[in-house]
Amino acid sequence: MVRQIDIAREAGTSVPTVCRVLAGRGEECGITPGTARRVREAAKRLGYKPNLVARALRTKRNQTMGVLFNSTAEPLYAELVPAIQSRLYARGYAAICGFWTNPDAEAGDTIRAVVEHGVDGVITCHEPGQLPADIPEMPPTVFFAVDDPKRDTVNVNGPESLVEAVSHLVAKGHRRLALVDIPCSYADAILAPHPDLPVSLPGFDIDYAALDAPGAGGLEEIAGHLAAMAPAKRPTGVVCRNDLVAVRLIALLAQAGLRVPDDISVIGFDDTRLARWSSPSLTSSGAPVGKLADALVDTLFARLAHPHCPPMHVVVPRVLNARGSTAAPTSQLELATRT
After folding, report:
1. Of the residues 113, 146, 206, 322, which has the maximum number of CB atoms within 10 A of its CB?
2. What is the pLDDT of residue 308?
């Protein structure tokens, strides 16, 4: 059985320091991030397993955190939730996870059920204004991918990454671009200050309930529409809301007779494993999942340590990883071949 004195020797620090770090109280007790990291790494190397029940009695905390996200069918959440869990456990906390597929019908009940377990804090992607009104008091909460100046938030740099994605296509020679499930008004406002980029890109909205189904709003209809367009008018580059939409669109374009990237280049967002596994591999812009999980967990524990400090806002930058789904448009390639 690994004792805290063993961890202290391994980390080169004192037993009280180990106790505070493993109790999740390192920051509020003035322990530096480097020391806290050494303690957690030493505990992991030695195979330390905390007694959560004993710790809860000692600290008067339940040693649990709520992790509440949309369906893990969303590739980003399927990777992010386990990363959050592992970081919580490294700090001596267990995660109580809740998911929903229909925010309007299911999210409120899911959040209520988890909060009523007495969790010490919550990490969620749910909009603050849609939290259940009958919860007397939410515990400290960090919101992911939500813009709210009055709440603790962790976001990615959405506007800059959209500019980078469009710039990537323009640099390859694309001039006819389109958006899939990205509001045109949002894109226009972001791209307007960049005169070298196309402004007012046509957009296609999708109904997520019809993601895999034919009919109005489905991706199958969008792929069919693109295939039916005259080549001279068809977009040669498409920017999709996320990797799931992009990979599904690539498959449907192939069924409709269009090749990626020969006929159409496609970019996604989130840069999940799905982007690397698709064929062709997907050009995608995303923040490393580990950095997102670190930011969410660190922000939540900072709030626990400093309950009265102003709202915290963390932005984790995305990076565009160019892969096989983007290339110069066919006309540009033919011109280069002739010359």
Report:
1. 206
2. 93
